[in-house]
Amino acid sequence: MAGVWVFKNGVLRLVENPGDYPGSNVRRKVLVHVPSNEVITSYDVLANKLSSLGWERYYDDPDLLQFHKRSTIHLISLPRDFSKFKSMHMFDIVVKNRNEFEVRDV
Fold this sequence. Notes:
The protein is α+β, with helices and mostly antiparallel strands. It is 19% helix and 35% strand. The strands form 3 sheets. Strands 4-3-8 form a 3-stranded antiparallel β-sheet, with helices on one face. It has a 3-stranded antiparallel β-sheet with strand order 5-6-7. The mean pLDDT is 88.
């Protein structure tokens, strides 16, 4: 079970998406392209940045956006819907592209 336990009005309950809970102090994250200091706001912007770094788009899975870099064994897999682009996806991109991207709090 992932989430945060919240105690309110004598009731303890599990909140699975703590950022959606009113009064939560969970910070939203954004992916930033460091050289340009640009916040990644769409997959089109991200695809352009990744292609300039040598990443190629894979079209094998219709449910995912996938990128591969020929010189490595790395594969970046992202949900097709940008609204489902979460911090774990952002950190995956950061780890595979050191000094190019970082994750910041909004």
